[in-house]
Write a structure and sequence with these properties.
Number of strands: 9
Structural class: alpha+beta
Number of helices: 9
Helix content: 25-40%
Distance between the termini: 56 Å
Radius of gyration: 20 Å
């Protein structure tokens, strides 16, 4: 069991039962492993075996389907200067949040039709994880903003958020999400990007 824990960064209940095969009091054994620090609870029925894991790569296992987006992805891509205090993901399921030793995780629902647009898989980490492209992260974040009525509102919001736009923005992702999201803020972002030649040709 100790060997298995050392070589597997995350355990769900199925893999835990397999690792504890032959142990009569499995719940008691898990409780002792948690108390000793050999396991760390991520949420009910999900455990990590190491404390040196990058917190961002755990989000998709904690609640899925989901991908890192919003301020968390903007910060990861170097588009905002602020340090992010929680890991925020997009999901097609209901909104929820979890807190564990690695940090606070928040999951925000988005329309199912735009969910697969602009997702990147990162493999050079402790665990592979999904994250929004720079354009998709910007789209997901601005979609939460109400009251946009002009491109001036987009310019003001970008200044207030201190967002450094990637060059170029993905025009196909902007168009698809403007249609799928149905939010005025994204439509205005698309127009703003086109007028200022911020998209690829």
């Amino acid at each position: 069991m100790h060997y298995i824990i050392q070589n597997e960064p995350i355990f769900d209940m199925t893999s835990m039962r397999h690792a504890l095969k032959g142990v009569v009091d499995q719940r008691g054994k898990i409780a002792r492993l948690l108390k000793s620090g050999a396991l760390i609870s991520l949420r009910r029925g999900l455990y990590a075996s190491r404390r040196d894991l990058d917190p961002i790569c755990l989000a998709g296992s904690i609640y899925g389907p989901s991908y890192i987006s919003f301020e968390s992805a903007l910060a990861w891509h170097g588009m905002i200067p602020e340090r992010v205090t929680e890991i925020v993901s997009a999901t097609i399921k209901r909104a929820t949040s979890f807190e564990n030793e690695f940090g606070r995780y928040r999951f925000i629902p988005i329309p199912k039709v735009v969910y697969p647009v602009g997702i990147h898989r990162i493999t050079d980490s402790d665990l592979p994880f999904l994250i929004a492209s720079p354009t998709k992260a910007l789209i997901d974040r601005i979609a939460r903003e109400p009251g946009f009525r002009s491109m001036a509102d987009v310019a003001r919001w970008l200044r207030e958020m201190r967002i450094e736009l990637p060059s170029p923005l993905d025009h196909a992702q902007l168009k698809e999400c403007a249609s799928g999201y149905g939010r005025p803020s994204i439509n205005w972002l698309l127009r703003f990007a086109e007028k200022n030649q911020l998209t690829e040709s």
